[in-house]
Amino acid sequence: MESGAGKHWTEEEVKALLSVWSEKNIRKQLHGTLRNKGIFIYIAKRLQELGVCRDWKQCRAKYKNLKYEYRTVKYAHNSGDVTKTMKFFHDLDAILRYEPVPQLAAEENGRCSATETQPNTSPTTESAQ
């Protein structure tokens, strides 16, 4: 299955991305990691094994778009607007609802700041370079 940069993601490709994304170690590495190129290189390789030919940039773009669309629909639902929907909402809800919520930690000067626990990175994460 050939997929170029300008091609839309098929339903099967999105399902494959969601299946890889739903893995616990992938979710941990993606949450709170700013430099995540290595994670998406790994995801692209995993997708290739599943027959989806997408590069890491395409995977990251689709991940960001799905996450944005999910949060938009989730916010609408929380505001009482249940008319806004998206495909794969329930799959994304299962993946994203378990993201750790930032906890408030007291600083020395008495102010509070948001802190998050950083997940352990695996050898597949070459994003720090």
From TrEMBL:
Residues 112-129 have a biased composition (Polar residues). Transmembrane segments: none annotated. Residues 7-95 form the Myb/SANT-like DNA-binding domain. Residues 107-129 are annotated as: Disordered. This is ZSC20 protein. It comes from Rostratula benghalensis. The lineage of its organism: Eukaryota, Metazoa, Chordata, Craniata, Vertebrata. The gene is Zscan20_0.
